[in-house]
Structures are given as structure tokens and as C-alpha cells.
Structure to design on (296 residues):
């Protein structure tokens, strides 16, 4: 058997084998400063105790993880927490900054029990920025950090920590908002597919069968239906069948039994009971009402 190739692991910045980790480690540099020395190709590696933000203002970057490769265009921000493997291939025209912080500094600002820590246990990418805190606001914050980092003013550490906190929080808020938006979009996609499948279904058909078509569980399907329509899945199916029954009763001369069979009900009386449950009328009463005639 061949030997397992060890992962590249740096206590400091990429390519720096001499730096030892310290609890107050802070480093801010231009992406080009280090990356051009490696021909813009940063091999997959990790940092055991460092958080890193990559703020891409111009150019392109290809992010490589253990399982995927993703091409990104500026503007975007990438976050890699400690122990997360990441490789980066930049376009030569790239412009931006890398902000590196020890996890001890982040722990001093945020308790490890906070939701923020849970979100930042994996790589995060932000490409779409909100109007109330656009990409330019992140750049201004980086400029403030840079100015304070190289100053000797009183309470420098406290103000730096305040800037770091603002950066993390604004980044976190937008990541969470985008995740919620994507979840809503996925939920609506499932719901629209369910509606389409109801209309094209050959009945009788069970809710578990509808759920299987969407590759989700029955419980998940019902949650989606309740969230979007305020009704369980079975009610949406039954309302569709009653709606089809209304069309037959209004526009054809089929008997109730014939309509029931057209809709694949095993027994006409089941169709009649379901119809009255949702309309308050028997099928014949509904037909008479729609046609302005009396039941004979």
C-alpha cells in the first residue's frame, strides 16, 4: 500500500513554515502579495487555529474543497474557519485582501455556543450583498481595520475587536438570510411540482406516492403544504378532485356515478360525500344550483 500523503497544514499564512501559532495572531494583506509568488495557485491546505476571510474586489478565483471546485467572480467574500481544507486559483488580475485571525480572538468576541459559531464551522461564500450592508461597506470596514491595525492609538485592541465583530456579524447575517431565501425557494419548487403532479395524476393515488415522486418524506410534504397553503397535502388533493367534479357537473350531462368513475373513485357515494364535505351541496344539488334548475 502507498503512503497517505499528509495534508498541507500551516500555523501561519500559506507557505510560511516558520511562524508559530499565537493567541493574538492578526494579519491583513493584499491577495497579490503572497499569491503571485505561487503563480496564483494556492494548493489545498488548512490552518489548524486560524479564521481567514478572502475579500475579492476584482478578478476571478476558483475555490477547491475536498469534494468540489467552484468558479467565482468578484465581488465576493469567502470565509474558511480552522481545519477546513481549501485551495484557491486566482486570475492574475485579482485584487482584494486576506484577513487572518486566530480562533482565540474570535472566541474572545463571540461565545462558542452562539449560532454564529455553528454557521462558521464550514466554509462560507457570500456573492450577493444586501442593500443595507453592500460589498462596499465590507471594503470600508477592511480599510478601518487596516488603519487601526497599523496605528499606535489608545484602546487599539478594543477597537480592532469591535471592527472584527462587525465584520463577522454582517457576514453572518447575510449568510443566514441567503440560506433562508434558498430554503424558501426550494420549498416553493417542491410545492409547485406537487401541484403539477396532482393535476396529471391518475387516481387513486396516495400521499406517500406523491411524496416519493418528489424524493421527500410524507411528513416533509405535509410541512411544505401547510407552510405554503395552510393545508395538509390530502386536502389539496381532495380539493382538486372536487374542483374537477364541479367542471363535470356544470359542463356535461354525465351522471354522478359516471363522474365518479371519470375521477377514478371506486364508489360513487364516496365521491358524493367528499363533494358535499367541501361544497356543502350534494353533486345533484350543485348541478341544479349552477344551472338554475330544481332537482327532479
Amino acid at each position: 500500500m502507498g503512503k497517505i500523503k499528509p495534508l498541507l497544514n500551516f500555523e501561519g499564512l500559506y507557505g510560511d513554515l516558520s511562524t508559530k501559532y499565537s493567541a493574538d495572531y492578526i494579519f491583513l494583506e493584499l491577495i497579490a502579495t503572497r499569491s503571485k509568488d505561487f503563480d496564483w495557485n494556492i494548493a489545498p491546505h488548512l490552518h489548524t487555529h486560524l479564521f481567514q476571510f478572502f475579500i475579492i474586489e476584482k478578478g476571478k478565483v476558483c475555490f477547491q474543497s475536498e469534494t468540489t471546485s467552484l468558479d467565482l467572480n468578484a465581488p465576493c467574500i469567502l470565509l474558511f474557519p480552522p481545519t477546513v481544507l481549501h485551495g484557491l486559483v486566482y486570475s492574475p488580475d485579482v485584487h482584494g485582501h486576506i484577513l487572518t485571525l486566530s480562533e482565540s480572538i474570535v472566541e474572545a468576541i463571540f461565545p462558542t455556543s452562539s449560532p454564529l459559531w455553528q454557521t462558521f464551522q464550514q466554509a462560507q461564500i457570500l456573492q450577493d450583498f444586501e442593500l443595507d450592508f453592500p460589498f462596499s461597506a465590507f471594503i470600508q470596514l477592511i480599510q478601518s481595520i487596516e488603519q487601526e491595525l497599523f496605528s499606535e492609538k489608545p484602546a487599539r485592541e478594543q477597537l480592532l475587536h469591535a471592527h472584527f465583530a462587525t465584520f463577522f456579524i454582517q457576514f453572518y447575517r447575510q449568510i443566514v438570510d441567503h440560506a433562508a431565501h434558498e430554503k424558501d425557494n426550494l420549498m416553493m419548487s417542491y410545492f409547485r411540482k406537487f401541484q403539477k403532479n396532482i393535476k396529471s395524476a391518475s387516481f387513486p393515488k396516495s400521499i406517500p406516492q406523491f411524496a416519493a415522486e418528489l424524493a421527500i418524506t410524507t411528513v416533509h410534504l405535509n410541512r411544505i403544504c401547510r407552510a405554503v397553503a395552510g393545508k395538509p397535502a390530502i386536502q389539496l388533493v381532495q380539493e382538486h378532485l372536487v374542483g374537477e367534479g364541479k367542471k363535470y357537473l356544470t359542463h356535461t350531462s354525465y351522471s354522478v356515478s359516471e363522474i365518479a368513475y371519470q375521477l377514478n373513485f371506486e364508489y360513487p357515494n364516496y365521491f358524493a360525500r367528499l363533494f358535499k364535505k367541501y361544497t356543502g351541496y350534494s353533486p345533484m344539488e350543485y348541478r341544479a344550483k349552477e344551472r338554475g334548475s330544481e332537482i327532479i
Q: What stands out?
A: DSSP finds eleven helices and ten strands in the chain.
